Q: What sequence folds into this?
């Protein structure tokens, strides 16, 4: 009986010590795929950041910001602190404003002016928070 109990204890110890089969499965994404996804995210964030900064450097935006009393240097430095979601949202709006301004409009419409002011306010609120 004692030998049976010892054998049973050894069996349970071995079963507990052997790694589970599911723990030995390979990852569903290869390291190359993970690296590619990370590079895509970084390049998207960089492109979004550049889009917002490029908009803040436009003469029309500088004029509107000056009239509204916004400090563009502070807004430009705040762009570096934005989260990916905030940056993506601002980049969409910045691209729309850039298209409107590059589309040959000689004057800035009210909607474009409001979008620029909204962008500046959002950037400053994020920095203040």
A:
């Amino acid at each position: 009986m004692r030998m049976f109990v010892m054998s049973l204890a050894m069996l349970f110890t071995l079963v507990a010590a052997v790694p589970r089969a599911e723990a030995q499965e390979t990852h569903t994404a290869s390291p190359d795929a993970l690296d590619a996804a990370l590079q895509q995210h970084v390049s998207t964030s960089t492109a979004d950041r550049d889009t917002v900064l490029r908009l803040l450097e436009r003469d029309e935006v500088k004029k509107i910001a000056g009239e509204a009393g916004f400090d563009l240097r502070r807004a430009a430095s705040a762009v570096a602190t934005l989260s990916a979601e905030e940056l993506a949202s601002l980049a969409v709006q910045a691209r729309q404003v850039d298209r409107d301004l590059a589309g040959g409009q000689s004057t800035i419409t009210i909607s474009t002016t409001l979008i620029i002011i909204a962008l500046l306010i959002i950037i400053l609120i994020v920095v203040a928070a």
